[in-house]
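To the wet lab folks,

You asked to see what we're planning to order before we commit. Fair enough. Below is the target structure as tokens, and below that is the sequence we designed to fit it. If anything looks off to you, flag it before the synthesis order goes out.
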């Protein structure tokens, strides 16, 4: 059985991490299949947004320590560290960072360690009331990875990030909402409909403008100067101003109707 299940809900690609017996830890072929789904959705113009959730009671429990502790029975420990200078999971995080389509995590359960890192790379996180988060690395004699040391300070600020890293403690869904780790918390049965509904709303918006918006947001995380960012914004704005999408938006405004971006 696949370690990632992929289905379409209209313009939304829904990916489910599918190793519930291992709490969706990053073993087997989970990372490779997720990267493949990202690449497939990125190339497919019919896909406008992604939603990623987990099977069972976890979103992703990070590294598969059970496999690593037993000598890396499925080769996980070797693959996790030795793919290249950033590791296999690093390649996935970079692919997410450079994706031009919105990425929403529907966090159904625990997201800890590398799973928390992967989760932090999404644009938006919607959590069920059962969701929990922990850096946990320090408790396993490990340093942060999977991009968490990059994203977490940007989400909660450096001081709070330090406290979460140094303690490794668990954060429940309500605290995650208060900290700004997630955008909303909903009952478990409403999680996937809420996340997919949000993705469908994004999918109905002009795709080129969405791409440019996401690029500007992601670029701003990389410490560029204000003048450089202003130049980047203006170059993208000029592209928007000359687009058919913009003409449709203006025409719809003049005709007092909702714009239809489905043809783009």
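Sequence we intend to order:
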């Amino acid at each position: 059985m696949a370690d990632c299940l992929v289905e379409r809900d209209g313009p939304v690609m829904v990916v489910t991490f599918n190793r519930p017996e291992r709490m969706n830890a990053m073993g087997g072929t989970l990372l490779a299949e997720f990267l493949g789904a990202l690449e497939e959705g990125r190339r497919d113009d019919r896909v406008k947004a992604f939603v990623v959730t987990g099977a069972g009671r976890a979103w992703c429990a990070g590294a598969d320590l059970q496999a690593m502790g037993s000598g890396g029975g499925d080769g996980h420990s070797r693959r996790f560290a030795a793919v290249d200078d950033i590791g296999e999971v690093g390649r996935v995080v970079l692919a997410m960072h450079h994706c031009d389509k919105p990425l929403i995590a529907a966090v159904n359960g625990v997201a800890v360690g590398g799973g928390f890192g992967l989760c932090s790379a999404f644009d938006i996180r919607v959590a069920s009331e059962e969701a929990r988060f922990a850096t946990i690395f320090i408790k396993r004699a490990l340093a942060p990875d999977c991009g968490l040391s990059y994203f977490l300070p940007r989400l909660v600020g450096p001081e709070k990030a330090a406290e979460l890293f140094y303690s490794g403690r668990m954060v429940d869904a309500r605290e995650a909402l208060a900290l700004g780790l997630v955008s909303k918390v909903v009952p478990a049965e409403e999680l996937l409909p809420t996340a997919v509904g949000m993705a469908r709303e994004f999918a109905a918006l002009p795709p080129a403008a969405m791409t440019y918006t996401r690029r500007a947001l992601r670029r701003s995380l990389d410490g560029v100067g204000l003048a450089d960012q202003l130049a980047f914004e203006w170059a993208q704005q000029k592209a928007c101003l000359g687009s058919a999408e913009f003409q449709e938006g203006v025409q719809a405004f003049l005709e007092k109707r909702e714009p239809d971006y489905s043809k783009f």
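Structural context that might help your review: The first strand starts at residue 4 and ends at 9. The chain is about 45% helix and 15% strand.

Thanks,
Computational group
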